[in-house]
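ARCHIVE CARD
Drawer: 12
Card no.: 0347
Subject: one protein chain, sequence and derived structure
Cross-reference: see card 0346
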Amino acid sequence: MASGISDNERYPGGTLYQQLPYFKKRGLDLSSYFLGTINVDISPYQFEIGTPKHFFKAIPWSNYIPPENFYFFDVKLNFRHKEYKGLIYMPDPITKVDHVQEQSILELILPRIYGIAYGFKVCIEVKDEQLLLFER
C-alpha cells in the first residue's frame, strides 16, 4: 500500500505518495527517501510508544477514510555491513481503519536499498525514549 505496488486503485502512487504533502506542510520532508516501506518483523519483541520524533494529528489525506494520526521515530537499519538512517512510519492504530498492521511489524522509510528482499535478516536501532522495544 505504501509504495503503490498493490492493486488498490484508491491510492494511485501509494499511500506515502499521497501523504507526502501533508507531512511536508507540517515540517517533515520525506522526498529524500524511497516512497515505500521496508516491513521489519520484530517478534518476539513488541514496542511501547514514548516520545516520537514527529506526531501529526488528524491528517485528512484520503477521501476514502477518516483523517489519521501518524507517528515517526528515528531508526538505523544495518544491512550487509552498511548503515541506513531513516524513520519508522506508524499510522496510529487508534485512527487507522483500513489495512490493519500486525503488532510485530514496523514500517521503515529509508533511502532506496538495493539487494534487500523479503526474508532477509537486518538489524535495527531505535532510540528507547522514542520507541521502546522489549521482549514479550
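Annotation on reverse: The first strand starts at residue 38 and ends at 41. The chain has one helix and eight strands.
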